[in-house]
Prior knowledge:
This protein is an alpha/beta fold. The protein contains seven helices and 13 strands. The chain has helices at residues 7-16, 87-93, 103-111, 179-185, 200-204, 213-223, 243-253, and strands at 23-30, 33-38, 41-45, 71-73, 98-102, 119-122, 127-130, 133-139, 156-162, 165-169, 190-194, 227-231, 267-271. A seven-stranded mixed beta sheet has the order 6-5-4-3-2-1-13, with helices on one face. The radius of gyration is 17 Å and the shape is globular.
Amino acid sequence: MEPLITGRALVSDIDSYDPPTGSVAFWWLGQNGFVLKGAGCVLYIDAYLAPDQSRRTPPLVHPSRVTHADAFLGTHDHSDHVDRVSLPGLMQASAQAKLVVSKVTAGALVRDGYDAARVVGISEGDWVQVGAARIGAIRAAHEFLDMSADLGYPHLGFVIQLNGATIYHAGDGVPWEGLRAAVAACRPDAVFVPINGRDAARYRSGCIGNFTFQEAVDLVGEVRPRLAVPMHYDMFAGNSEQVDRFTDYLDAKYPGIPWWVGSPGERGLVQSA
């Protein structure tokens, strides 16, 4: 991979790049973390920026430098997705930003002192408008389809419609009956999907699992987006995957579906049909 793009250079690239209509630029932060930009709107998804000696991908930017965000999206309330260490600094630096999370997570954050006026809770079937972005949710099974009778699903994938393109970010999760149909109905131009898998040893240690690379390939193959982006394979030594196993299998089983693999901080582009 190329050298990491970090700090001022990363923020400068986000600020200066203006994707054309019908496209969304993205920057990978490692793990499930991405920055999306289109139509002048900047979204951070699962921004995990806390320093930790167990990380294999270092934090790319200090929260104080992130002054341009319109929203921070968190797929579920685990520390590498809703980062309670970095989130206060991010919310302070981007004082205009909303925090879009599940209704379950929203309640926990407000109880912990986050400003309720800035926290937006959604569940499956809900949509919220933040700037130029329309954000919806599809439930995620991590590893079960947990549900609160009052607040809905705590684990989500996000559907983001922005600048004429649609992205499905799966969050963490495993396949469940109806998932592929739900994703396909959104007609995503890009699917961002975890590939690190799961097993008994990890589950017993409290490390909740994700799609295997084969399951991720089959989701992509049935939905057939214009771009596939694997994620959640790089961060921790005991919970990683070789990304070329995903790309090779995708090329072999569903030839013709483009994929993106890059270095953290590198820019990619999603284009609509």
